[in-house]
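FIELD: query
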Amino acid sequence: MPKLWNETIEAHRSAVREATLDVTAALVAEHGPAAVTMSRIAEETGISRATLYKYFPDVDSILTAWHEREVQSHLDQLTEIGSRPGPPADRLAAVLTAYAILSHQHPRSDLAASLHRADHVSQARRELHAYLRAIISDAAATGDIRTDVTPGELATYCLHALTAAATLPTKAATHRLVAVTLSALTPQH
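FIELD: result
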C-alpha cells in the first residue's frame, strides 16, 4: 500500500476514535453512564454500529479509552508546567497547584471511582510520583525543600494531601491546601 494511503487510513481511524471518545464523554455528562449505549454513540458520531464495534467492543472500553486520554492529557499538562524555566521550588509549587486544581475540577463520582481502578491510572500515578520526586530532589539540592524526609516520601505525601482538593468547596480552599502542603516541605531549622 502506498504510504499516503496508509497515512490517510490512520488519520481516518484516529478521527473516528477521537470523535467516539468525545461523543461518549458528552453523552455521559448529559445523561449519565447508564443511559449511554453503543447505538446512541454510533448515531451521535454518524458511524454505523458495525464500524463502532470494529473500534470498541462495548461502552466500558470506550469509557476506559476516554479516561486514559484524559489522564494522559493531565500528565502532559503537569509535565509541561514542571518543565518551565525557574527554580525547582517554584516549578514544584506550580505543578502541585495545577495538580490540586485538576483534582478540584474533577471530583470523584461512581464512574470516576471505577475508572480510577484501571491499570492506566496506576501507571500514571507512578509516572507522576517519579516526576514529583525528581523535582523535589532538585529543590532539596538547592536547600528549598527539607532533606530529613526522602523525596519519594515527600512526593507520596503531596499526592495524597492534594487529592483532598476534590472535596473542597472552592478554588480558594484548594489554593490554601496547596499552601499548607508546601509549608510542610520547607526545611526544618
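FIELD: remark
The mean pLDDT is 90.
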